[in-house]
UniProtKB/TrEMBL annotation:
InterPro entries listed in its UniProt record: NAD(P)-bd_dom_sf, Sc_DH/Rdtase_CS, SDR, SDR_fam
Name by which UniProt lists this protein: Dihydroanticapsin 7-dehydrogenase
Family: Belongs to the short-chain dehydrogenases/reductases (SDR) family.
Keyword Oxidoreductase: yes
Record-level GO BP terms: monocarboxylic acid metabolic process
EC number of the protein: 1.1.1.385
One MF term in the entry's GO annotations: oxidoreductase activity
Enzyme class: oxidoreductase
Gene: bacC_11
Taxonomic lineage from the root: Bacteria, Bacillati, Actinomycetota, Thermoleophilia, Solirubrobacterales
Alphabetized UniProt keyword annotations: Oxidoreductase
PROSITE patterns assigned: ADH_SHORT
């Protein structure tokens, strides 16, 4: 307990899955949490977990595809707590979004330019930039900060179809590396987590395949999807002072998926 004591952490996509569990864990570890996402009711459910355990936080309902939202989130955090020490850039879309918005997770030959822009120009990439753009000046002014960007194993390997998604995740990875070498001397560390198959609503259509043991083994050497808490634990380490010499890192948390060169 207390690994983030008195730090202020902004967490995007905090209404469910990885973001929600990260908000809860950071709150238990002493951070003042600022959770943001579109679903206010779900945000408040996670905040209730934080406050019930004696933690502190606020929620800021926001759609990061709206260019004004990041500045509004930052303003709310500063108004409440005066500073921002940590940003966990977690908001994004996945396979469920592709079902609800046909073409967005398709191959180049099937996707439209509008499909491409929905991912690249939406929350999966541009939303990361706009949140960093809003938060970073405050961290530089304070001379300290930790930014944790959530990419994917799809950022380091190809996926069948989903070309805009993999492009966005790869860009997030190199954005983090570039930021790491640019801002570390000013006290701001940047690192990236690359999750594998994590049991969240975002990839529910894929996670269901793990119910078949043969398919599960083919999808992941550990034969199971990861849990959101397992990614939150990785984010906790990177955000904390325990990772004071970790900068520009790519932390893969995928059950071994990217460790092998072929299924089996």
């Amino acid at each position: 307990m207390g690994r983030l004591q008195d730090k202020v952490a902004v967490i995007t996509g905090a209404s469910s899955g990885i973001g929600g569990k990260t908000m809860e864990l950071f709150g238990r570890e002493g951070a003042k949490v600022v959770g943001t996402a579109r679903n206010e009711a779900k945000l408040n459910e996670h905040l209730e977990v934080v406050t019930s355990a004696g933690g502190e936080g606020i929620v800021v309902p926001a759609d990061l595809e709206d260019d004004s939202s990041p500045d509004r989130v930052v303003a709310a955090a500063l108004d409440a707590y005066g500073t921002i020490d940590i940003l966990v850039n977690n908001a994004g879309v996945g396979w469920q979004y592709g079902i609800d918005n046909p073409g967005t997770m398709a191959g180049v030959h099937e996707a439209s330019v509008e499909n491409w822009r929905a991912i690249i120009g939406g929350v999966d990439l541009e939303g990361y930039f706009t949140m960093i753009h809003a938060v970073l000046p405050k961290m530089l002014e304070a001379g300290r900060g930790s930014i944790v960007n959530m990419s994917s194993m799809a950022g380091i390997t190809g996926l069948y179809d989903a070309h805009a998604y993999t492009a966005a995740k790869g860009a997030i990875l190199n954005l983090g590396r570039s930021m790491a070498i640019t801002y570390c001397k000013q006290g701001v560390r940047t690192n990236t987590i690359c999750p594998g198959f994590i049991d969240t609503p975002m990839i529910a259509p894929v996670v269901g395949a793990f119910d078949d043991p043969a398919v599960a083994s083919a999808l992941c050497p550990m034969g199971r999807p990861g849990q959101p808490e397992e990614i939150a634990n990785a984010a906790l380490f990177l955000a904390s002072d325990e990772a004071s010499y970790v900068n520009g890192a790519m932390l893969v948390v995928d059950g071994g998926c990217t460790a092998r060169s072929f299924p089996g």
